[in-house]
């Protein structure tokens, strides 16, 4: 657990550095003067759509790498390991199919988006380079996780990508990039750039080998690999569609679609701050989960499951209530365009969704690395069955609030099903009474802080509310010792600071 904890903390630090840069980018996008709401919305739409392309184009190769890496590592030398060559080759074939489909169905896309989001139609072809970058990076990221290099991928994905965006914004502000047309075209190449950086790094470090001879491991497990990829592919498509479907619906259905995508994306991006440690813990624990299932170490699986749940729930509760206190005030104080205040109601439900999702731990990864990975498809299908119609109907009824409510309902039911499955099959369960205490402490600290400083505005209000809330929440968590990982972290910090 110490290895997972250490890498998770480092990765979380990297992720939050990325979010700080991302917040700076959002400030420039939304301050006014440089970009319109529709232009900012288009960058978000590019990113979301490229993720969907990745889900289709990779043909489950990241899951194949994560699941079978221990088998290749234990039975083959590096020079004879054909796993990565297979994964990258299949991914390129998959993306080629996606590209052909994009050309064939272009007329349909134009018909659906031309009325409310003409910007998307204008730059339709430029989504594909970003999609290709997402596909290649996803495979290399899974491989890096498997060789226990999660910090590097976190840096490239969370920090370097946003640094590229910052540079583009600065060049645009200085008119070195003369117009938005050139800006968005260069932006579409940023994910290809970080994929290339990761590939070169692994190549230089001699941690990547491309063997084009079919190995004995591939021949031995071919049927299981194909079965895994077929089921997980369907499940991953279902999952990723559910994640970005709200942006697609807002752009296609609501009037002034791209501008509303921008407003919605502010709320959605802020909830990403809540979700950041989950990505770090997943990256750090995935290789340990694969090994634990291979060795049938159920005690380790339960330990990782419980600790991921309580640690993520404590953090999610803290960040959700902290941002709830300051959301409106931050937009007003920072001089962001007032129309972005309309995203507050969406943030309430999107933030609750993240608290639920993080509080249930890394159940997706536990199921995905087990022999019951077929359940990914079943639970994913349920999620899609709930989310798609709910998002469409509630968007028509409640505008951008609708997709947020749909996410909360769907993700809650989705995680409940997975918790029940893991308990019934393996007697794995994430919660204890400390889980409830974490949420109640967050709520109590929120109420006390809100009434203490409800009439204090500006930067002073932001500072005082944040400080009091963090003191109340942190003191209660430490006093009640809600997480078994808290003491080792505190001791490490004290040691480093020589206290």
Which features would summarize this protein structure in a list?
499 residues; mainly alpha
Global outline? globular
Proportion of beta-strand residues: under 5%
What count of domains describes the coordinates?
A: 1
Largest sheet: none
Low-confidence segments, given as residue ranges, are none
- Total number of beta strands: 0
Q: Helical residue percent?
A: over 70%
Subunit organisation of the chains:
single chain
Order of helices and strands: HHHHHHHHHHHHHHHHHHHH
User: Gyration radius, to the nearest Å?
Assistant: 23 Å
Subcellular location: Cell membrane
InterPro entries: Poly_Biosynth_Transport
Transmembrane segments: 9-30, 50-72, 84-106, 126-147, 159-177, 183-204, 225-242, 262-289, 310-328, 340-360, 372-394, 400-423, 435-453, 459-480
Protein name: Lipopolysaccharide biosynthesis protein
Short summary:
Keywords: Cell membrane, Membrane, Transmembrane, Transmembrane helix. It is found in: Cell membrane. It is built from 20 helices and no strands.
Structure description:
The chain has 20 helices and no strands. The protein has one domain (2-492). It has 499 residues and is mainly α. The two termini are 24 Å apart. Helix 7 (127-146) packs parallel to helix 10, helix 13 packs antiparallel against helix 14 and helix 14 runs parallel beside helix 17 (401-426). Helices cover 81% and strands 0% of the residues.
Q: What's the helix and strand layout?
A:
Elements lengths: L1 H29 L6 H21 L3 H15 L7 H22 L1 H8 L4 H5 L4 H20 L3 H24 L6 H8 L2 H15 L11 H38 L3 H39 L2 H36 L10 H16 L3 H6 L6 H24 L2 H26 L6 H20 L5 H23 L5 H11 L3
């Amino acid at each position: 657990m110490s290895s997972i904890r250490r890498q998770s903390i480092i990765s979380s630090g990297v992720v939050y550095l990325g979010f700080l840069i991302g917040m700076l980018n959002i400030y420039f996008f939304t301050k006014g003067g440089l970009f319109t709401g529709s232009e900012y919305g288009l960058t978000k739409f590019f990113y979301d759509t490229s993720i969907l392309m990745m889900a289709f184009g990779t043909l489950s190769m990241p899951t194949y790498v994560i699941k079978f890496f221990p088998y290749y590592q234990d039975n083959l030398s590096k020079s004879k390991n054909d796993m990565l060559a297979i994964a990258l080759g299949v991914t390129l074939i998959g993306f080629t199919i996606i590209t052909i489909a994009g050309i064939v169905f272009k007329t349909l896309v134009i018909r659906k988006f031309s009325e409310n989001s003409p910007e998307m139609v204008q730059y339709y072809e430029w989504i594909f380079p970003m999609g290709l970058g997402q596909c290649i990076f996803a495979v290399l990221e899974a491989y890096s996780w498997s060789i226990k290099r999660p910090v590097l991928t976190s840096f490239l994905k969370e920090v370097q990508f946003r640094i590229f965006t910052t540079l583009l914004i600065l060049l645009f502000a200085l008119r070195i990039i003369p117009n938005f047309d050139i800006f968005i075209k260069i932006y579409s190449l940023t994910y290809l750039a970080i994929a290339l950086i990761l590939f070169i790094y692994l190549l230089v470090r001699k941690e990547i080998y491309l063997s084009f001879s079919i190995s004995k491991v591939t021949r031995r497990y071919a049927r299981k690999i194909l079965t895994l990829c077929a089921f997980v592919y369907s499940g991953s498509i279902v999952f990723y569609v559910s994640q970005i479907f709200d942006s697609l619906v807002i752009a296609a259905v609501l009037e002034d679609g791209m501008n509303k995508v921008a407003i919605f994306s502010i709320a959605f991006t802020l909830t990403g701050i809540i979700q950041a440690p989950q990505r770090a813990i997943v990256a750090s624990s995935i290789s340990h989960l694969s090994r634990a299932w291979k060795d049938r170490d159920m005690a380790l699986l339960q330990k990782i499951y419980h600790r991921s749940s309580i640690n993520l729930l404590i953090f999610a509760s803290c960040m959700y209530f902290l941002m709830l206190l300051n959301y409106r005030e931050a937009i007003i104080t920072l001089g962001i365009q007032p129309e972005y205040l309309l995203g507050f109601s969406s943030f309430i439900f999107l933030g609750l969704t993240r608290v639920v999702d993080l509080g249930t731990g890394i159940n997706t990864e536990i199921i995905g690395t087990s022999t019951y990975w077929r359940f990914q498809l079943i639970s994913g299908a349920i999620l899609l069955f709930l989310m798609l119609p709910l998002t469409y109907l509630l968007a028509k009824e409640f505008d951008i609030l609708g997709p947020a409510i749909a996410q909360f309902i769907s993700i809650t039911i989705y995680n409940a099903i997975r918790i029940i499955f893991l308990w019934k099959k393996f007697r794995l369960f994430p919660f204890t009474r400390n889980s409830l205490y974490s949420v109640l402490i967050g709520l109590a600290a929120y109420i006390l802080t809100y009434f203490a400083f409800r009439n204090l505005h500006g930067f002073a209000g932001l500072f005082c509310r944040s400080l009091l809330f963090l003191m109340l929440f942190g003191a209660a968590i430490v006093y009640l010792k809600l997480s078994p990982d808290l003491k080792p972290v505190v001791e490490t910090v004290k040691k480093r600071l020589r206290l």
